[in-house]
Specification:
Keywords: NADP, Oxidoreductase. Pfam families: adh_short. This is SDR family NAD(P)-dependent oxidoreductase. Strand 1 (7-10), helix 1 and strand 2 form a beta-alpha-beta unit. The protein has a single domain (3-227), classed as 3-Layer(aba) Sandwich (Rossmann fold). It is 45% helix and 15% strand. The protein is α/β, with parallel strands linked by helices. The protein is globular, with a radius of gyration of 17 Å.
């Protein structure tokens, strides 16, 4: 697509990967609406990126409906959804509480589903649209202490495949990006230690890929792409 014609919603974009994707798209000429749950961070991000912003919790359907209403009011229409909002929950199987498991699913799966469901209504009606779901390399392979997070990201891959099959006849491209470890505050919030930071991926690399995937001529699309650091050790 022509990025200058893109009218984009990026969820969970007050920092990290979402912030960089929103910024890269805006610099390329797109109109962008972002959302987040923290009013202060949202105001800072919208000012810095020159984008529109609205407070929204992606796990709440009413907030998602209002997000799209706001986006259409500001941009006239929507033709791109970047489903980025997500949280990390890690721990051994024995120590992972039902509440923590549910928390990961509320944001990473239900939130992604609600945003995609609303996008589908508009994209089917206008016979055009683009969805990028931000997955993870944890959507490809499990590992110790990853039950809640990995399960939620495997679900993202399943949703992406279902949506692709369902929406492709309506001229809607459904894509997925699977980053490996990326240096953002996501890592600190999840209680993990950052090692060899200089050799790890930064949000800018994921943003580069998102813009590239959208920039491909609409006759084709990249179903999914994984991004790994070259030498993270």
């Amino acid at each position: 697509m022509n990025i200058k014609e893109a009218k984009v919603i990026v969820t969970g974009a007050t920092g990290g990967i979402g912030y960089e994707i929103a910024g890269a798209l805006r610099r390329a000429g797109a109109e962008v609406v972002i959302c987040g749950r923290d009013a202060g961070k949202l105001k800072k991000a919208t000012d810095e990126l020159d984008v529109f912003g609205i407070e929204a919790d992606v796990s709440k359907q009413a907030d998602i409906i209002e997000l799209y209403r706001f986006a259409i009011e500001k941009m006239g229409s929507v033709n791109v959804l970047v489903n980025n909002a997500g949280i990390g929950v890690f721990g051994s199987l024995a120590d992972t509480s039902a509440e923590d498991f549910q928390k990961a699913w509320e944001v990473n799966v239900k939130g992604l589903f609600l945003a995609g469901k609303e996008a589908a209504k508009y994209f089917i009606a206008q016979k055009y649209g683009n969805i990028i779901n931000i997955g993870s390399t944890a959507a490809l392979r499990g590992y110790a202490n990853g039950s809640a997070y990995v399960a939620s990201k495997f679900a993202v891959s399943g949703l992406t495949e279902c949506w692709r099959a369902e929406l492709r006849p309506h001229n809607v491209r459904v894509m997925q990006i699977n980053p490996s470890e990326v240096i953002t505050d996501f890592i600190a919030k999840a209680g993990m230690e950052i090692k060899n930071e200089d050799n790890k991926l930064k949000p800018e690399q994921i943003a580069h890929l998102a813009v590239s995937m959208l920039s491909m001529d609409d006759v084709g699309f990249i179903p999914d792409a994984s991004v790994w650091a070259t030498n993270p050790w």
